[in-house]
Amino acid sequence: MTRQFKSYIDGQWVAGSDGADDENPADLAAPVGSYGVLDAAQVAQAVDAAAAALPAWSLSSPQQRADILDRAGSEILARKEELGRLLAMEEGKTLPESIGEAARAGQIFKFFAGEALRIPGEKLASTRPGVDVEITREPVGVVGIIAPWNFPLAIPAWKIAPALAYGNTVVFKPAEIVPGCAWAIADILERAGVPAGVFNLVLGAGRTVGAALVGHGRLDALTFTGSVPTGRALLRQAAERGLKIQMEMGGKNPLVVLADADLDQAVECAVNGAYFSTGQRCTASSRLIVENAVYDEFAARMQARLAKLTVGDPLQAGVDIGPVASAAQLDTDLSYIGIGRDEGAELLFGGERVECATQGHFLAPTLFAARPEHRIAREEIFGPVAALIRADDYEHALALANDTEFGLCAGICTTSLRHATHFKRHAQAGMVMVNLPTAGVDPHVPFGGRKASSYGPREQGRHAVEFYTTVKTAYTAA
Ligand code: NAD
C-alpha cells in the first residue's frame, strides 16, 4: 500500500473511516493506495464550511482568484507527467492520453484564471429618462460538484476552475475509483493559496457522500457529470429543492462514414473515437454508420486495424488501449457483448478478455456488425465495444445517426461539402465533428449535448459563466 488519500474540509485534511483500496485496473495485486470515506456529518461540515467562506470569497478581488487559478494551472502543467502517471495507474488510460489530460486540466485552470478578470456585464439606456440600467453577474453561491471517473483530472478542472473564478465556493465529490486524482487537485489548490472553506473535497460513495451533498440545504447549485440514471435521479431532487443544476450525461455517438470519405482517415477517426481511452468517453463513437457502397471495405479495414492495436499496461510504451477502469464496468462490457451475440449481431472482432503479464481488467477492442434496433446499437455501454451499422445513403445515415435518445456528439467522414454542411445543421447533437473523431474537444469552447445527454447550460469556455453566475439587473436614478 503506497499512499493514503484524504478528504479536505475547511482547510484541513480529513482521513475518514472504512478505508477502501484505490485499485489499479491494470494490476489488481498492486493498488495505487487507499482512501477513507466520509460520513454524512462530515459532508455537512464541508458544505457548512463552503457556505461560511462564501461571503468573503464572493467579494474577493478577481486578481486574487486569477492568481490562485494561474498558480494551480502552472503546477499542473509542470507536473503533468507525474499526474498523468497517477491517472494512468488509477483509471487505466494510456500514459500519453493521461499526460494529455493532465495538461488539459492545467490549461483549463489557466483559461479560467483569465476569465476571472473578464467577468462580463452590460450597461444599457433605460426606457425611462434619467435612469441607468446595469446588468451584472454575481456568483451563484455554494456549488456541489459530482464527477465521473473517466476524466478524473479534466472534468473536475472544468467544473472547479470556473466555479472559483466567478467567486463561488465548492464541495467536490469525485467518483469512488479515482480518489488519487481528486486528492492531487485538492493538494495543488491548497498550495496555490485557496482560502480555507473555499474548496472542499469529500471522498466516498455516491449513495452516501453524494447523497449527503445533494441533500444539504445550504447548497445553491449542483453540477453533475455521469450516467443518465444517476443524473435523472439528481434532477428530481434538485427540482424539489430549487437548486440550479447542470448535467452532462451519457452518449451513443454516431460516426457516419460516406462512400466519398477518405477511408484511411475514416478508419483512424473510428478507431480513435471508439476505442481509445478504452472506449470510456461520453463522446466515444460507439455507432459506426457506414454507407453501403463502402461498408464491406470499411469493415475489412477496421478488422485489420484493430488487429494491430495492443491492449495492456497503460504505463508501457506501445500500448494503445489500457484496461477497463473497474470490475463493474468490465462486467457491463462483457454482458453487452453477450447481449450482442444473443440478439444476432455478428462479432467482427474481439469480444473476449485479454491476458497480460499482470492480472487486470483487460478487454479486446470489440466490433459488431449490428442492426439499428440491437441493444448494443442503442444503449450506452461505455467500453471498447462499437456497432457497425449499414446505411443505404446519406439521408438514411443521417436518420440513423439521429435515431437515439442521446445527443452529445455526432461525426461524419466525407469529402462532400454539401453533405458536411447539411450534417452540421441537421445532426441532433450538441457537438459535431467533420473528418475528426467524435471524441477530442478543445478546452476553450462550449462542451455539451442535447436530448438525454445534457441538461442545463453548457460547460467550458466563456459559456461556463451561465451556470456559475446569476444575473442582476440594477436601475439607478441620478
Ligand atoms: P455514475 O452516474 O455512476 O456516477 C457519477 C458520479 O455520481 C459519481 O461520483 C458517483 O459517485 C455519483 N453518484 C452516484 N449515485 C449518486 C447519488 N445517489 N447521489 C449523488 N451522487 C451519486 O457515472 P460514472 O460511471 O462515474 O461515469 C460514467 C458515465 O458518465 C457515462 O454514462 C458517461 O457517458 C458519463 N459521462 C458524461 C460526460 C459528459 O460530459 N456528457 C463526460 C464523462 C462521462
From TrEMBL:
<dbReference type="InterPro" id="IPR029510">
    <property type="entry name" value="Ald_DH_CS_GLU"/>
</dbReference>
<dbReference type="InterPro" id="IPR016162">
    <property type="entry name" value="Ald_DH_N"/>
</dbReference>
<dbReference type="InterPro" id="IPR016163">
    <property type="entry name" value="Ald_DH_C"/>
</dbReference>
<dbReference type="Pfam" id="PF00171">
    <property type="entry name" value="Aldedh"/>
</dbReference>
<comment type="similarity">
    <text>Belongs to the aldehyde dehydrogenase family.</text>
</comment>
<dbReference type="InterPro" id="IPR015590">
    <property type="entry name" value="Aldehyde_DH_dom"/>
</dbReference>
<dbReference type="GO" id="GO:0016620">
    <property type="term" value="F:oxidoreductase activity, acting on the aldehyde or oxo group of donors, NAD or NADP as acceptor"/>
</dbReference>
<keyword id="KW-0560">Oxidoreductase</keyword>
<protein>
    <submittedName>
        <fullName>Aldehyde dehydrogenase family protein</fullName>
    </submittedName>
</protein>
<dbReference type="InterPro" id="IPR016161">
    <property type="entry name" value="Ald_DH/histidinol_DH"/>
</dbReference>
<dbReference type="InterPro" id="IPR016160">
    <property type="entry name" value="Ald_DH_CS_CYS"/>
</dbReference>
<feature type="domain" description="Aldehyde dehydrogenase">
    <location>
        <begin position="14"/>
        <end position="473"/>
    </location>
</feature>
<feature type="active site">
    <location>
        <position position="248"/>
    </location>
</feature>
